[in-house]
Please model this.
Amino acid sequence: GDFENPTPGFGWYNWGDSGFDSWAGRDGSQGFALYGWITNGYGGLIQEVPVVSHALGDVYTFRLDGMAESGFSSSTAGVELRMEFWDGGTPLYAVTNNIYAALTSSAGSWNTYSLVWTNQNASVDVVKVLLVGEWFEMVEPYCAAMWDNASLDAMDLSVPWLALSGNESFYVGSSNLWRV
Model:
């Protein structure tokens, strides 16, 4: 998992009715949870990622494994993945993927949720990735949403790429010679 050692000043930060807990991980010793037992609760997770080069046209993919307990509920169906694109401390734009329906319809099962976006602004210097939940309502005792294995991948499309997938594996790489 990714949330074993959240350290202030580095890595992931959380806010509101959420936390890093040993019972919330898919694998490893710790995961992240939205505390759905807090009525009208809200919370989330954020990480700021510096953009090194080739910001314009890069394809960003934010992935996160998640599982809702059977009683997890939001009165506004509010659970989303978000990517915010920043320049020098100024927000340029944000994109979201509301995953509430998919998360709650498969309660009790771990699934991977994602948000994919092609950057449209060459001045981007930071991408912030967020998981945001709001307006929790306790409908039964087991009502957390648990998260693990977060990743942000950037693909620079200014170089030739080949993507291969199959048999539960995925490879992306650059080369001018491939044997398939």
